[in-house]
Amino acid sequence: MKANCWYGKHDLRVEEVPDPQILNTRDAIVKVTSTAICGSDLHLYNAFIPSLERGDILGHEFMGEVVEVGSDVKNLSVGDRVVVPFPIACGNCSACIRGMWSLCENSNPNAWMAEKLWGHSPAGLFGYSHMMGGFAGGQAEYARVPFADVGPLKIPDGLTDEQVLFLSDIFPTGYMGAEMCNITPGDVIAVWGAGPVGQFAIASAKMLGAERIIAIDRFPYRLRMALSKAGATDTINYEETDVYDALQEMTGGRGPDACIDAVGLEAHTPNVMYGVDRAKQSLMLETDRPLALRQAIRACKNGGTVSVIGVYGGFIDKFPMGAIVNRSLTLKSGQCHVHRYLKPLLERIVRGEIDPSFVITHRLPLSEAPRGYEMFLNKDDGCEKVVLKASDGFASSRAVSAAS
Amino acid sequence: MQAHTQDQLVRGVSWFGIGIGLGAAVARFAATRGSRHVTIKTSVTIRKEPAEVYQFCRNFGNLSRFMRHLSSVSETSNGHLRWRGKGPAGASLTWEAEIVADRTNERIAWRSLEGSMLPNHGSVLLRRAPQDRGTEVHLTVGFEPPGGALAAKVVRLFEGIPEQQLKNDLRRLKQILETGDVVRSDSSIHPGLHAARPASAKELSKVHAKERSQVEGTVHP
Question: What integer pLDDT is reported at residue A272 of this predicted model?
Answer without folding.
Answer: 79
